[in-house]
Amino acid sequence: DIQMTQSPSTLSASVGDRVTITCRASQSISNWLAWYQQKPGKAPNLLIYKASSLESGVPPRFSGSGSGTEFTLTISSLQPDDFATYYCQQYNSYSPLTFGGGTTVDIK
Amino acid sequence: QLQPRESGPGLVRPSETLSLTCSVSGGSIKKNDLYWGWIRQPPGKGLEWIGSIFHGGSTYLNPSLKSRVSFSVDTSKNQLSLRLTSVTAADTAMYYCASGREGYSPLDPFAVWGQGIKVIVSS
User: Fold this and answer.
1) Pair B95, B117: CB distance under 8 Å
2) pLDDT at position A18
3) Do B49 and A43 touch (CB under 8 A)?
4) Which residue of chain A comes nearest to B6, CA vs CA?
5) How many angstroms separate the CA atoms of B108 and A91, rounded?
6) Which of A23, B19, B73, B109 is deepest in the core (most CB within 10 A)?
7) What percentage of chain A reaches a pLDDT higher than 90?
8) What count of Cα atoms within 13 Å lies in the side-chain half-sphere of residue B110?
9) Residue B115 Cα to chain centre, angstroms
């Protein structure tokens, strides 16, 4: 299995802050990485695919970077609607597809 | 846009079989040759991929669940189904159905998710 490790697990920030979340893969996954946002009681929502491509309808304050084993999700200026949990997911291998453990962004 | 919606029992007894259905509206389940995935999330925990299925029947399963899981697809009803046998409390979770983004491969992020269905395993 490809293990996906996110850090930090919890992040406290204020509106307007620049926020960065890291995701590390246990082996190279090229750029086959997605980021999702999940709010309480809701299904996850795809933000980023292929490590850095912004999904349609997602605000441009979200960006992704990285390749191989190290990836980051950046929110350039945190907005009230962004307080949520974020997950990375590798889709380089389906044996199995795996998600990171999640990073919760809460209000400082 | 294709929209999945999960349905099934909210309560299942231990050792029994969980059966869930994903009904797709807004177009054909064959559209864009997308793969369809099942993902679950235990209460307060992260996401676990159960497996993915193609409308033609090709199936990819999480090895950790492979011995207990099976999928089927009914293109005439625009539905997918999941069966999970010999359930235990560890199978208590929110179960989601989701479509791939680009199609033709199970190696595809999940672009459109259903609202999920909460399943509790308890006697």
Assistant:
1) yes
2) 98
3) no
4) A43
5) 6
6) A23
7) 96
8) 31
9) 12
- Write the residue in B37, B110, B114 that is nearest to A46 by C-beta: B110
| Contact residues on chain A for B101, CB-CB shorter than 8 A | 46, 49, 55
Judge contact between A11 and A105, C-beta under 8 A: yes
Tokens at A104, concatenated: 């919760």
Residue count (chain B)? 123
Put simply, whether B111 touches A (Cβ < 8 Å) is yes
B21/A contact by beta carbon, under 8 A: no
Provide the pLDDT confidence category of residue B55 given band limits of 50, 70 and 90. confident
B38 in contact with chain A, both atoms CB, cutoff 8 A: no
Q: Do B46 and A100 touch (CB under 8 A)?
A: yes
DSSP assigned state of A83: -
% of chain B exceeding 90 in pLDDT: 89
Nearest chain A alpha carbon to B96 = A43
Pairing of strands B11-12, B117-121: parallel
Mean of pLDDT over chain A: 97
User: Residue A8 and residue A22: Cα distance in Å, rounded?
Assistant: 7
For B104, the token pair is: 């033709």
Structure tokens at B5: 């919606």
The predicted pLDDT at position B56 comes to 86
